[in-house]
Write a structure and sequence with these properties.
Layout (H helix, E strand, L loop, with lengths): L22 H9 L3 E5 L5 E2 L4 E10 L5 E12 L2 E11 L3 E11 L5 E11 L3 E10 L14
Parallel strand pairs: 2-8
Antiparallel strand pairs: 1-3, 3-6, 4-5, 4-7, 7-8
Length: 147
Amino acid sequence: MALSDAEEAGGFGLLDWHRHAKPAFDVLVDACRPVVVIADTPPLVATPGQELSLAVHVVSDLRSKIDEATMTARVTAGDWETKRQWIGPVDGDSCTFIADLTFSVPEVTGPLVIDLELDSEFHAATNRYRTVIIPSAEATSSSYSKS
């Protein structure tokens, strides 16, 4: 795979013909950071009242331990919000389980956004997951899976 398009008409590169970043470039840069925060992928759709539990991890390619990091998870849907926060160390060269982010889907419909943020003295990382809340009556076995 080439990093840049070979022709002005386009291609599969991460940079266009003029060496300007395409959207996938930022995704690659984020994936290559030395510290990332991740969660289980939420279901494609959720229904009001559904209980969700997503495992949250910090992946560190650093050679040394992060002595103290603050991990914040914020879940929003419309005017509804819930927030959880954890503080502790992150081992170097590891995938560290932080906690299960557990919540009940609110009684609204529309986008549900899960924002993760890790902050420490020298490193920061963010990640965002999205799903959509649909009315229970619209959920079908082909598009809805209970978590």
